[in-house]
Amino acid sequence: MTPSDIPASPMPVRYSRETRWLHWITALLVLEQFVVGQVGWHLMDRTAPLRPWLVATHTSLGVLLAAVFVTRIAWGLTGGRAIRFPVVSVQDRIARGVHLLLYVLLGGEIALGYMARWSTGHPVMAFGVPINAPFAAMPHATHVFFSRLHHWDAWLLLWVALFHAGAGFYHLLFCRDRVFQRMLP
Questions:
Q1: Residue in 114, 103, 119, 118 with CA at minimum distance from that of residue 68
Q2: Percent of the chain topping pLDDT 90
Q3: Helices (DSSP H) in the chain: which residue ranges?
Q4: What does the alpha-carbon distance between residue 172 and residue 64 come to, in Å, rounded to a whole number?
Q5: Burial of 116 by CB count in 10 Å (0-12 exposed, 13-18 middle, 19+ buried)?
Q6: How confident is the prediction for the chain on average, in pLDDT?
């Protein structure tokens, strides 16, 4: 039997169930984190009674998002995400670049969130469990620096994620090439 006698395996229709779950959980958590972060830190009075709940929600679900992010990285690196769609066009290269940018921005956002909290000398609280800082409190200016980077990275992440979602809907509504369906349940 020669290699040309072996039937070609058909192109997969969609990503694995695990990959799709990790994608949608990440998307929901990123959206939730953005909304809660904006409401809790920028739109609500710092003395509002709901603020401690918003802070606890943001930090707890931020730690959950970090765990999902690390799981996604491990899933991709260990071959768990075995389905790989070919990169054959400029559009495919742009899509890969946007995915890489999303990973970099999300990883940066998570790291900046930890640094913003830890720079105050306080632990990150995840569902009531403290994750202590690996270093002492830093000057207030350092905390402000990390907090501002965390804020602006969140906005950049949101815009790139919206571009990503828009590209998916473009494929669904105009190209009709089933790219969007790869990530549907």
A1: 103
A2: 65
A3: 17-38, 51-77, 90-118, 140-170
A4: 30
A5: buried
A6: 89
56 CB-contact burial (10 Å; exposed 0-12 / middle 13-18 / buried 19+):
middle
List beta partners, residue 131.
Answer: 124
Question: b/e for 63-86, b at 16 or more Cβ within 10 A?
Answer: bbbbebbeebeebeeeeebeeeee
pLDDT tens per residue, range 85-142 = 777 889 889 989 999 999 999 999 999 999 999 999 999 999 999 999 999 999 999 9
Question: Which residue's structure tokens are 């909290």?
Answer: 117
Single-letter code of the amino acid located at 88: V
Looking from the CA of 113 toward its CB, the CA atoms found within 13 Å total 27
Q: Which residue has the tokens 């890969």?
A: 96
Residues 6+ apart with CB under 8 A from 53: none
Q: Measure the CA–CA gap between 35 and 80, rounded to whole angstroms.
A: 31
Q: Choose among 112, 118, 122: nearest CA to 150.
A: 112
- Radius of gyration of the chain from its Cα atoms, rounded to whole angstroms: 20
Query: In angstroms, rounded to a whole number, what is the distance separating the alpha carbons of residues 175 and 169?
Result: 9
